[in-house]
Design brief:
By secondary structure, this protein is mainly alpha-helical. It has 19 helices and eight strands. The strands form three sheets. Strands 3-5-4 form a three-stranded mixed β-sheet. A three-stranded antiparallel β-sheet has the order 6-8-7.
């Protein structure tokens, strides 16, 4: 039930983001010739692809140029299907670009040895041909195989500067069995420093975007580490992480007085690293993260901290059910009070579904007043969002919980309204007479 609710909320957010982008691009394209270029499309997650397709179909005066790897290299069937939607759209045209030539493959291989003390000036024709044949000139795979060869140490540079395998032949099958994107990410992850692996695992639990201080807290156990080190040391920490991250899994988003914020270059990268951990390990890390943010929750930072606390508790086991319900109530109330009607509706629906499920399991007492208030707030939020039918159903449910049953037929509704108006008229007459 909860997974379905999360998926529905994500689809709703996708439509909302798509609508905003449509309006923006339509205004811009009225005055200028607008072209949107999207590269490395294969890294995009499902909802990003849905937004892009929605906007691309609707914005007829905007040109879209999309670049991605061949569909045959994709592991996810869902991603393939979404990209195929672009090809079926009337204004989209697919151009298959050829891979690198043999000479371009050689030049790309040499770039992996640019900063090496044994700098290669040329590549053995046999080695270059082997890599070219295996990759069909795909630069992404060429780079991956070249880096695999370098990391293995089974190579040498001759006195004339030619790069050759250490023992004549090099069997790539022993190191890289498949070339799908996720396999390449995992193969690269295994070759980085152990401390950085731990850093990436903790970061993957915290989210696609995270604060450096939060990760360092879990790794060092030192709270408020930013206030305990000077700016130079802090800069060195950032530089050290980015230097150790030789495959560019992460990027520095911003750095200032409030600390540094980093992010994964792709949602796919974060998902792969997150799934490397056992389920129990992820639950434990989510619990520590929830307790960490919970200890920092104040009225001033509620807008930034409340959601992470709730999301982390939702990933823990059922022994923390009370915390899940408690923070779900707080999140729903926060969005309702601040007027964020879409978010309020999303979390109020989650709250009602969870509360009903717990009541059916006799793990939550029945509170008609609380349920009535939640349905009333849900009705208000849905009505403000423009979902009149759903809003009406929620408000009727709220009234019925308090014993106020609405007439079911049109005739009964007219009769009830007439009686209500007569009663109100008598009350007004008495009020003004006194």
């Amino acid at each position: 039930m909860r997974n379905v609710e999360i998926q529905n909320a994500a689809r709703l957010r996708t439509r909302e983001v798509g609508d905003v982008m449509q309006r923006l691009l339509r205004i811009l394209s009225e005055n200028i010739n607008l072209s949107i270029i999207v590269t490395e499309l294969q890294w995009a997650d499902r909802y990003s692809l849905e937004v892009l397709h929605q906007v691309g179909v609707a914005c007829t005066r905007t040109n879209f140029m999309l670049f991605c790897r061949p569909l045959s290299t994709f592991e996810s069937k869902e991603t393939k299907q979404l990209i195929e939607l672009f090809l079926q759209a009337p204004r989209f045209k697919c151009l298959v670009l050829a891979g690198f030539s043999l000479d371009e493959t050689r030049q790309l291989i040499l770039t992996c040895w640019e900063n090496n003390k044994d700098r290669a000036k040329n590549v053995s024709p046999k080695l270059c041909q082997s890599i070219y044949n295996r990759t069909d000139g795909n630069p992404f795979f060429i780079k991956s195989l070249a880096q695999t060869l370098k990391d293995s140490g089974k190579w040498r540079v001759t006195p004339s500067g030619e790069l050759i395998p250490e023992s004549g032949d090099f069997d790539f099958e022993q190191l890289v069995l498949q070339y799908e994107n996720q396999n390449i990410i995992l193969a690269r992850f295994d070759r980085i420093d152990r401390n950085l692996q731990l850093f990436l695992k903790v970061s993957a639990v915290l989210g696609l975007r995270f604060a450096l201080d939060d990760v360092l807290f879990f790794m060092t156990g030192i709270q408020k580490i930013h206030s305990q080190v000077d700016s130079k040391t802090y800069s060195q920490l950032i530089r050290g992480v980015l230097t150790a991250d030789r495959y560019s899994f992460l990027g520095l988003e911003s750095s200032g007085p409030n600390g540094a914020f980093m992010c994964f270059k792709s949602a796919v990268v974060r998902k792969c690293i997150y799934n490397l951990m056992a389920h129990k390990q992820r639950q434990q890390l989510h619990l520590h993260a929830a307790q960490y943010f919970e200890s920092r929750l104040t009225e001033d930072n509620k807008h930034r901290t409340l959601i992470p606390i709730f999301e982390h508790y939702m990933e823990t086991d059922d022994s923390h059910l009370d915390k899940k319900v408690h923070y779900l109530k707080m999140v729903a109330s926060f969005y309702y009070e601040t007027g964020c009607v879409s978010e309020a509706a999303k979390y109020l629906k989650m709250l009602l579904d969870m509360a009903q499920e717990l009541q059916s399991m006799q793990r939550m007492p029945t509170d008609k007043l609380a349920f009535s208030n939640w349905y009333r707030e849900l009705g208000d939020s849905l009505f403000a969002r423009g979902d009149a039918k759903e809003a009406f159903e929620a408000l009727v449910k709220s009234l019925s919980l308090m014993g106020q049953i609405l007439p079911e037929t049109k005739y009964k509704m007219k009769w009830a309204l007439k009686k209500q108006l007569q009663s109100r008229k008598k009350q007004d007459t008495i009020f003004f007479a006194n």
